[in-house]
Amino acid sequence: MANIKSAKKRVLTAERNRIKNVAFKTSIKTALKKALELATAGDKDALDTAISKAYQLCDKAVSKGILHKNTAARKKSRLVLAIKRLQEAK
């Protein structure tokens, strides 16, 4: 543990930010899974909304510095490829 007061504050701030970042990443994973579930269900309107939400969360994570831009691009690309594979399999 740090000895200097400002360093102690930074430790607390870093932990608070880490918890927020983990929660945000979890929401992205949930959105991606929901979109994949809707792809198998076949509801086109709900699927478009879910994909849009997943894209929005990935882009927001990039702007906040939670994800690297290439990581977000990879997640979005893999989502669309997986959805296309699921729809072709039907």
Number of helices: 3
Kindly state the number of beta strands: 0
Give the N-to-C terminal Cα separation.
Answer: 56 Å
Total tally of structural domains: 1
Give a description of the structure.
With 90 residues, the chain is an all-alpha fold. The protein has a single domain, classed as Up-down Bundle (Methane Monooxygenase Hydroxylase, Chain G, domain 1). The protein has 3 helices and no strands. It has helices at residues 5-41, 44-64, 69-89. α1 packs antiparallel against α2 (44-64), α1 runs parallel beside α3 and α2 (44-64) runs antiparallel to α3. 20% of the residues are buried.
Question: What's this model, at a glance?
Answer:
By secondary structure, the chain is mainly alpha-helical. It has helices at residues 5-41, 44-64, 69-89.
Topology overview:
Blueprint: H1 5-41, H2 44-64, H3 69-89
Helix pairs in contact: 1-2, 1-3, 2-3
Keywords:
3 helices, Methane Monooxygenase Hydroxylase, Chain G, domain 1, elongated, 90 residues
